[in-house]
Design a protein that fits this description.
The chain has 178 residues and is α/β, with parallel strands linked by helices. Helix content is 30%, strand content 16%.
Length: 178
């Protein structure tokens, strides 16, 4: 099903919030919003473009946190963004629990395809922002218009359409491509 709305999909850890390194964000207090994200979300709203988080949170499946804790972390994220006049339209997460509500792991495009169906998103006019090869590969597998990588500590083997040094550059690039 092809929709008509544009969307920018955001990976969470390393893009929306400061990367926890090799571990996981396990509590709301450990979630720190990255600079430039609220400004990017406000710009997307002005351009009538959806903004959706697609995130891998295997810490739930590994028993490092509960699904309720993950919900609390996302509620904290929403509160931080609301204080800056910004918001995401939805959050999709792979938790590694294997349950019927769990989405497949990246780079499988399942989270993006589910969002596209729910929100009538035109994937050919949509983008993804990530910091890992699996994010970029997921966007490619979903047939998105393009991919944006935030350069971090991770090794790069999958090329992105655009590569940025940090999240403060996101609003400027979005102004150019949307």
């Amino acid at each position: 099903m092809s929709g008509s709305r544009r969307c920018v999909f955001f990976d969470r850890d390393g893009v929306v919030n400061a990367s926890p390194g090799e571990g996981y964000v396990l509590s709301p207090d450990a979630f720190h919003l990255n600079p430039g994200i609220a400004a990017a979300l406000r710009l997307l709203r002005e351009r009538d473009c959806l903004a959706i988080v697609v995130t891998s949170q295997k810490g739930v499946g590994k028993g490092l946190m509960t699904g309720g804790t993950l919900t609390n972390i996302h509620d904290h994220m929403r509160d931080l963004l609301a204080a800056e006049g910004a918001a995401f339209d939805a959050v999709y997460a792979h938790t590694g629990t294997g349950g019927p509500a769990d989405f497949p792991a990246k780079p499988d495009p399942g989270m993006i395809l589910a969002a596209a169906e729910r929100f009538a998103i035109d994937l050919r006019r949509s983008w993804i922002i990530g910091d890992a090869d699996r994010d970029i590969a997921m966007g490619d597998a979903a047939g998105l218009a393009g991919t944006i990588r935030i350069r971090g500590e991770k090794t790069i083997t999958v090329p992105a359409t655009h590569t940025l040094e940090n999240t403060t550059e996101i609003p400027g690039l979005l102004r150019l491509i949307l």
